[in-house]
Amino acid sequence: MLTRATMRLEVLLAILFTVTSLSATPPKCPTRRIAFKITAEDTARQEQAEAEGHQPWRSNPKGVADAALMQVEKGLDPRRVNSIPFRQISQSESQIIYRYELADRNRSESVTVKRFQWRDPETGKSRATVWWATEVVVTDCSEHSGHDATEK
């Protein structure tokens, strides 16, 4: 009799543990991908502009990522961008990914910036372009936060 009662208790505890662990699992936050279209004409035009001294910030990958973040996050105060927590999550010679944590909006944004290779028509040599934001992946957890995260 004791073994039967013990078995029932074990089964009930196993069910309770399973239900508790399932309800304690945080829900996955939805993501959306925003891709920026960049044409060969865009890169040629930007290379010419940089050669003439325009938009020098395009030589700075973090500056390009900041600009993409402001483009996606409408209403974001440009003076605030430098205070948003971020980390570099990957880097190669031609690509860097930065992840920004917008706590007040309960979301993170991963911004990919790349340098493309282009062939100089005068010398025929290949060289890297300025940095370009190619995509932003927004992970929005505002529905799972337990409080209202309104746009500012």
What would you note in describing this structure?
The chain has 152 residues and is α+β, with helices and mostly antiparallel strands. It has one domain (28-144). It has helices at residues 2-24, 40-51, 61-72; strands at 31-35, 86-91, 95-102, 107-119, 126-140. Strands 1-5-4-3-2 form a five-stranded antiparallel sheet. The longest helix is centred in the first third of the chain and has 23 residues, at 2-24. It is elongated and about 55 Å long. Mean pLDDT is 79; it is low at 11-25 and 147-152.
Concise summary:
The protein is an alpha+beta fold and 152 residues long. Helix content is 31%, strand content 31%. The chain has one domain (28-144).
Label this structure with key terms.
152 residues, alpha+beta, five-stranded antiparallel sheet, 3 helices, 5 strands, elongated
Number of helices: 3
Give the overall shape: elongated
How much helicity do the residues have? Answer: 25-40%
Structural class per helix/strand content? alpha+beta
Kindly, what is the distance between the CA atoms of the first and last residues, rounded to a whole number of angstroms? Answer: 64 Å
The domain count comes to 1
- Model regions low in confidence, pLDDT < 50 over at least 5 residues: 11-25, 147-152
Number of strands: 5
Rg calculated over all Cα atoms = 24 Å
Determine the oligomeric state from the structure: single chain
Helix/strand order: HEHHEEEE
Order of neighbouring strands in the sheet with most strands: 1-5-4-3-2
Strand content: 25-35%
User: Major beta sheet, specifics?
Assistant: 5 strands, antiparallel
Mean pLDDT figure: 79
